[in-house]
Structures are given as structure tokens and as C-alpha cells.
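[scheduler] slot 2 assigned
[scheduler] job type: sequence-to-structure, two independent chains
[scheduler] chain ordering preserved from manifest
[runner] begin chain α
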Amino acid sequence: MFMKRRSFLHRHGIERLFHDMLQVLPMLVAIDAIGIRGHGGAAVLVELLRWLPRVRPGWQFHVFLLERDLCEFELPDDLPGVTVTRTREGDSRSARMNWVNNGFPARVKAMKADVAFAFANIGARQPSCQQVVFCQQAAVFDNKYAAFWKIDVHLRLAFMRKQFINGFAASRAVIVQTTDMRDRMLQYYRPAAGQQIHVIPSGCRTPSENPLIREEIKQKIAGTSLPRLVYISHPWKHKNITNLVNALPEILRHFPQASLLLTLDENRKSRTYAGEVAKILRAAHQAGVTDKVIMLGTLQEDEVEYALCESDLLVFPSTAESFGLGLVEAMAANCPIAVADLPYAHDVAGDAACYFDPHSPAAIATCVIALLRDREKMAALCVAGEVQRQQYDYRIIAEKFARVFEDAVNE
């Protein structure tokens, strides 16, 4: 028994020592972020590039991005340990697959990277070193999306799902943001022996030392009446904005001065985007609430926090999410949350939100009205949000990512 215990301690001690050495030894992580053009994926990427070098100061991180004119975001200038290569490779569906399976692995091999991190969902079928995939695309594994799109989109999602699974099969680990996302993925993909699927949430954006808020945004928000409801969202069908607009007449019956702030841009030229905004505006007109629906336009990062801080309630009726970053942003801004009663929302918000049936405008209205009448409840949600958001600290999140990379090299 003594010898067995000594053997265990010896083995455990060596493993612990090796783990500590990995944190000290230099490691090169090559990050494929081609395919990330903006929005939530860009926010997560920026924070990981900010915090990974802090939790592993001896490591190097080389990220591949599309050229600046193809992206809607910028990386901070002060990212020690991070180098960037900009390219136009991968700027189409077919070119993206060629980049994933040929271009990126060749670059990774040439730079002798220790880990290839496929940040944008799709990993190589034959990676040139240990590979980790970060899957953030809910639509590929969520049948709820079927109600929103035509057959051509269904076929494209099926094709993408096949590519995702090919990459998963060739990877040491896969990372998703919620247990709901993992459970849906497991309906299509079963990991091989020794392969791990890790649930690591996204987090709260690092606050700016000098927030930049455009004066027109301040004036737009200040010019609206209280109580202010806000929904940080794009206009896509699964975001379910029409049902929120249709709930507004009943809310206004109890709170006639209420305003609904939407982060939509009426002047955006994209055909798909403009078409969805037009449908939302028609719904507002038919419901007789056009003057109560305020289009703030696309907000910059600091302005999202400002809008949440200036609002009474975040109403989040989305019917499908890979995570739900707006919920974390609301908790960080001390803004109470009313959200769709769906698994992704419970994963992210827990007890820090009130829940409603997102398919029923009446249910949305009932939940919102009850909260606006109960200021003590809203205050309690903010307190619960303060506790809940501790798990969304990027120092903790970056540490979890770093350990996945270490395990990929160790195994």
C-alpha cells in the first residue's frame, strides 16, 4: 500500500511539475480568425488576445485576420505577445474552405506552432499540429433555425455542419460557450476516446478607461421617455424583434411613456439587413407604436454599455443563441434582464433574470409589466447579476482556454 501511494504521489508530482513547466516554457499558438468580421465573435477575440498573454506571459499568439477593409472591428494597439497577419485569403465560402484545409495548416507548419486554434468554427481535416476548435455558430446545430430560413439556407447549414464535424474529428478538443450548445452538438457529433468538449463561456468586455460615446447617441437616448426598454441586437429573424414590438401596445397601456430602444440602422445598405429592418418597422406601424420604437443605429462597444446603463430593463426575446453576450453586458451594466425562457438564457443568466415565452407577445408584455411595477424585484435581479457575472471575468476565461491548449500539447 505504501509503495502504491508513493507511486501515485510520484506520478502526480511529475504531472504537476510538467503542467507548471508548460506555463513557463514558450508556446506558440496560431489562431485562425478568418471568418470573424465583427459582432460578438470579434468582441470575444479581442478580449482573449488581451488576456491570454497576461495569464501565460511566456507564450506567443499569432492571429490571422482578414484585411482591415473586410472587417468591422479593430484590434487594440497594446497587445504584448500578439502578432497579426492580415490576408484576403478566405474571403468567400469556397476560399474559406481552401484556407482552413490548406492555407492555414501550411502557415502553422512553417511557423512551427505548438497549437492551431480554429477560432471561427471550422478546423482543418488534417491539421499540421495539435488543433483546438472554438464553435460559436448556433444555427448549424439548432433545429429552431429551420423555421426562419428557405431551403437554400438549410442546405448551406447542412454543408457547414459537415465541415464543422470534419474539423472536430481531427481536433484534440472542442470549445463551446454553453451546456445547451454542447448538448445540441452532441446530437450530431460524438467525440472520440480522449477527445474533450469544453464549455467555456464568453465574458464581460474590459471597460474603456476613456469611454467614447457619440453625442448623437447621448441625445437620442436622452430624448426618450421613461421607462426605457432596450434590446441589443441585430435584426435577424431568430432575434424575434417583431414579437417584442407586438408586445409594446400592452406595455404602453400600463406605462404610456415607455420607450423601446433598438440597436438597428435604418440606413444600412445590406439587402438582407435592410429587408429585416423594414419588416420590423412595418410591425411597429401596424401596432401603432412607431413613435415609441427608437432606432439607435449600430452602437460601438462603449455605447452599448452606455445604452444599458441609461435603460430600465433589457428585454431579450431571441429564440436561438450560441451564447447571448447581451445578457452578460447587461449584468455588467447593472441593468435588469427579462429574457426568453430557453436553455441558453438559463445557462448564461441563471437567477439574474426573469423569463418569458418568447413566442407570445402577451407573455413578453406580462413579464415586462410585472417587473416595471416591482422595483424591489428589479433591484434584486441586479444584485443577482453582480454575483452571476463573476464567472464571466476574462482572466478566469483566458485561464480556462490556456489550460485547454496545454492539455492539447500534453496528451
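[runner] end chain α
[runner] begin chain β
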Amino acid sequence: MQNEKTLNIDEILRIMVHRYPFLMIDKVVEIDPGKTIKAIKNVTFNEPYFQGHFPEKPVMPGVMILEAMAQAGAILVNQSFGNPDDFFYLGGIDNARFRKPVIPGDQLIIEMEILKKKLNAFKVRGECHVYDTKVCQAEFMAVMEKGTK
């Protein structure tokens, strides 16, 4: 993955419609437009879902990991083919696999790649790692609606 571009939180907020507590991307550390992205989600104990998701042994819900992956994919597609006013709808998730729990203190490294683009529809695939351990993988379908934000 080439380090052609990075995005800090201010730049991410200009692209994404999500806000706390649902913005799941803290930083984009690498992006190769039209190809790949590497993003970070710092998992802290202060996340609201930890209050009710196994409070005695907090584990990041799998759906939140998938949401972080979908958001990274949306940033990649936006930076590759869109503009800041475009809006993304999730169309589907395939082949999702969870391999190890993600807990407070972990740094989720999200790597996504574009598999296919057809008109305004996209298919992306990705993996999440904590350190060198793969914790999740999945494929996503999304549709981009031009200039609706």
C-alpha cells in the first residue's frame, strides 16, 4: 500500500456524515485512491457500547467492527471517485468472519480494497488487525448517491 495520502480527524469529519458516538475512524494513515486504504480506530473503555456489551468482560461488538470497516471503505470510495457531498448506503455484507475479540486498549487497523466499481455501486473487501493478529474480515457492497449530504 502506497502512502499517497493521509487524513486527520478534521478531514475525516468533512467527508463523513457520522459523528460521535458513531464515527468509527480516528485516522487514515495510508490511502491509494482507487485501490486501498489503511485506517485506525482506537478502542477505548469509554465507548458507549461497553456499558452493556459484556460489562464484566468488555468486548467490541462485531457489528461495530463491521461498521468501522464500512466507514473506511466509504472514505476510500469517496476519495477515489466522489466528492465531500456524496452519501453512501450500505447494500450488503458477505463472508464476515470474526477471529479474535477486540477489547478496550486495542488499536484496530482497518485495511480495505476496492474489488469492483459499476456505475455508482461498489464492492470492497477488508481485514482488521490488532497488532499482527487478524481479528475480522468481510466484503461490503455500497451505493454512492451523488451530492446529497
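[runner] end chain β
[qc] chain β: The mean pLDDT is 93.
[scheduler] slot 2 released
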